Amino acid sequence: MDIADVQLIKVPTTPEVSSVPEQPGVYLMRDASDTVIYVGKAVNLRRRLQSYFAAQPRGGAKVLAMIGHITHFDFVVCRNELEALILEANFIKRLRPFYNILLKDDRDYPYIRVTLHEPYPRVERAWRVEDDLEKGARYFGPYLAGDIHRALESIRSIFPVRTCRRNLPRDIGKERPCLRYDMGLCEAPCQGYVTQRDYYAMTEELAAVLGGRRGELRQRLREEIATAAERLDFEAAAAARDRLAALERLEERQTAVLGSERDMDALGLAVGLRTFCVQKLEVRAGRINAAATFFMDLGALESDRPTTKASAGGEAVAGDGVGTEGEAAAEGEAAAADEAGADCAMTRTEIEQNCLRAFIAWHYPEAAVIPPEIAVPIRFDEELHAGLTELLNSLPVRRKVQLLHPQRGERRHVLDMAQRTAHEALQRHIGRGRRSGEYTVAPTTRAELGRLVGCPSVPGRIEAYDISNIGDDDIACGMAVFVGDSEERDLSRLFKLSDLPGQDDYAALRRALERRLARLDDPDFGSRPDLILVDGGIGHVNAAREALAAAGETIPLAGMVKDSRHRTRGLVVVPESESTESSEASPEIIELSGSENQELLRWLTQIQNAAHRVAGRYSGKLRRARNLRYRLEDIPGVGPKRRQILLENFSSLAALAAASEAEIAAVPGLTKAVAAEIYAYFHPETRESRTGEKKRV
Hints:
Layout: E1 9-11, E2 25-30, E3 36-42, H1 45-52, H2 61-67, E4 72-77, H3 81-95, E5 104-105, E6 111-114, E7 123-126, E8 138-140, H4 145-158, H5 179-182, H6 196-210, H7 215-230, H8 234-252, E9 264-271, E10 275-284, E11 287-297, H9 325-340, H10 348-363, E12 373-375, H11 382-393, E13 402-404, H12 409-435, H13 443-453, E14 461-470, E15 473-483, E16 486-487, E17 493-496, H14 505-517, E18 531-535, H15 538-551, E19 557-562, E20 568-573, E21 588-591, H16 598-632, H17 640-649, H18 653-658, H19 661-665, H20 672-682, H21 684-696
Parallel strand pairs: 9-12, 12-13, 14-18, 18-19
Antiparallel strand pairs: 1-4, 2-3, 2-4, 5-11, 6-7, 6-8, 9-10, 10-11, 14-15, 15-16, 15-17, 19-20, 20-21
Helix pairs in contact: 3-11, 4-8, 7-8, 10-11, 14-15, 20-21
């Protein structure tokens, strides 16, 4: 179906999805400016749209953010799912909606562009496929940054093509040839030293070599070497030999994987907790010519399964980052269910099919070249296979495209390489997030925490508290906030507890919670917590329970206990049979040992470290201010009022000591004489030099 033939059905700003038919189709979400922000397809349009406009829509952060911007939508009814699939891809390619462009490369991969649409083509690096593809330009890649540099170097050693941007043939003869001509690296078409026909034929051969067709050139170069040697033209023989060596260097860096000169793409797939990875290996003329890695949020996927309470085929859900292919897919089932808003998990096969469907529909309409074979690691169901094949062949392709699921042989060997690379790339991707403290947490892990602490549902907002002090001074309590599995640093709060009689962590925690519970509905704090975690053991939990009981609140509560090496080892919880308001009940410690709890322990450690960081930062700030105040008391002419002025303008002793006398004097409320005394206090050598000058006078 072509977009030009589509009749959109517009729905008013207040969505009335009950009027939408229960048929296959495509829907276009629009914002207040009437811009299309998302395009999706559905087997049942009404059911899909109802999931967006329910009273409590479910989904990941991106889905919920998108829903907040939707003011109205259009839809198109299609004859079947295949037609909807093709129309969806066409709309996305044409409109490029913001919330559809969720797929991203692990990095920017450049292409080699041969401008065959120009009379005198150039060979250059390009960072994306441009519109000149439709005019006849050829793109090869994508390449890794180092590989493209070596490939261009080899190509320019074999073919003396121009690299300048002169407008030819208009500018022929207007300027002198460049240095590349003198070095024998360009035939100087800018001077008319080569005919347009011969130069264009050379660049066509260059494009064939980049595409993997090198046998004919290799044979011709060997013949040129032999012929030149017979004529004793050793200079020509050496030039041909150097070009042959450059060709061989180009081939050495490309692994031969197929016995025949076959063109194909192999798509490896790895599914993590909330992200899936597609590894694309491009095979041209039997050799791996390029590779690229792509990541996409599982939350961007959609399932057309009807809502049900059925389980996901009895699959065990792993809780650890990335493991085997089966474990990764199982993790993806839970993540996809949580993100897409279904009441049940999709099966492993559905998740994998949805991942590859999303990638193929997004990537290939924009691809520079589509090979005749695309190998995938799973077998699509018959209807989806037919739809994707029809979509691919509706694009500008040179030969009919087939979707293959090889079981053995050379194609399977390439596919296995792509699979291994995809899993390694996903492990690195998740590992980087964990090292930065920003990794995602499996929905099953969050659900397990809720079960252990007695939450009625998966906790959405978690508040973690930690006390920081040194002796009886600088007592503070830090509150770190996690929404979902992410720390929201803008919501963190600090409680200064200077009114306590002495060092008492339990009293400090109780006082901080009393102040927080008194402002549960204060918009400055955001919202009410679903779970309160405290850094400490049974005594800390009892102190927190007293604060909750005094406020008449029954918010779920737990403590996070550490081992002798200061590592999180378990939770302190109140048994369900005991009342939260009862201070007589004894909490119990749940030890979280074993591999099945590693993900939960990692997350609790992250929460505990966040609360400690918030409290420690504030306590350190109080210590620095106190130390500054003590030192300032020793400076002549600086009383309580001026000490306060200095405290407000300089954050630390180091900042004050580093300031110049003029900067101190510029502070309102300080005279030049006082500024001189303060500066001399930190720089006694200046006082001595001034004293010496007075004596000489």
